[in-house]
Amino acid sequence: MSIPFEKDKDSAAIKSWCDALTDRDLEVRVAAARALARQGELARVLFSESTASVRIEAIMAVTSKKPSLPALITALQDTVSQGSVARARIAAANQLASLGDETAIAPLLAAAHDPNPRVREKMAQALHRLVHRLNTQKNRILFIFWVDRLVSSLKDDLLYETSLSVLVKIERGELSGTTIKPLVELLHSQGASASEREHIVDLLGESGQQAAVEPLCTALQDNHPDIRMKAAYALGKLGERAATKPLCAALQDTASKVCKAALWALAQLEDQAATGPLVDFLYRSSNVYEFERIAYDVLPVLRALGDTTASGLILDCIIKYFPSRSNWDDLSNSYYWANDYMQRTWDYEHPEEDPGVYLTRLLPETLIALCDEKTFQRLLAMTQDPSYSDFLRNYLERYISVLSQRFG
């Protein structure tokens, strides 16, 4: 039997394809099922065809064309009620998940009760993909948490059923899915594991809700450094300046990755109230090696904030770390010693000179970018003050001409 051309939408052609579904030849039935599915007749195939492989081919055929959401939902509900093979139910679920439409959530939740453990696993994973494709700003933060927990509890029947029941209540409107309060309570509970707290912190950062700021600031005190780091990044994503002070305090964290996260977050907040703590963080360096490490992170943030009150403090840093020719030699030697490590470890751009030269330019260039008139007058006085080393005065003089054009 010949199969009509697939793009022909004539009702006679559709009737021929439907007749072909009864053919004894499996390949003929598959071709007919594909053609019908691509013409929006997927539900017709699923209701009339009993062979699982044909039904699967029909479902998969719609990948070359935007699938019909109602047809896929019908297919999923039909396959569950008729108890057809697991592969057909999984194929329908995967297609629903790929659409990114919230309408598919309810049927996927219903299918997650499937008696087949393999199907339950795939339904939960499909639901997970779907909700993560949806915009998290739509106040589905609590729902997403329980979907993630559903996937992680596939081998724990009790926790799986608990997660599923909560999701059903949220979907039916019996439990608010817009609040972050249950997540905050779990974050502060003694029973929450480190990995669970990390996940909650990530979700709070994606929530876009101002109410998430306070619990995230509290999470900056967590005894797990990865959680403190993620809390800092989450606060940066929220962009609420109420987090400036706790993030500045996080600059004193013993874990360098937490300090880096706090620096990134402060740059996102663009709050000039962070200027003083940032310069203190830079100035607290006990030696030139620590200074070179911190300066790469702090100076770009200071320039981004654009607070000119930092210029005098940055000048103090220059005086502290460039006071004499001997210190300059020590600094140069440290760069040669650390050059390979820096290039392999740090992500930065620098001119063709070695990284040591780059830092000696980065510091005064930041000073120039932020310089106010008071600091400019200090610079002028320093270049004439013999109590400062010739090296330092010569080093600063090259920038005086640039600033003179600004301050006259």
TrEMBL record:
Pfam families (alphabetical): HEAT_2 (PF13646)
Family annotation (PANTHER family): DEOXYHYPUSINE HYDROXYLASE, PBS LYASE HEAT-LIKE PROTEIN
This protein's name: HEAT repeat domain-containing protein
Domain of life: Bacteria
Single Gene Ontology MF annotation: oxidoreductase activity
Organism of this sequence: Ktedonospora formicarum
InterPro entries: ARM-like, ARM-type_fold, PBS_lyase_HEAT
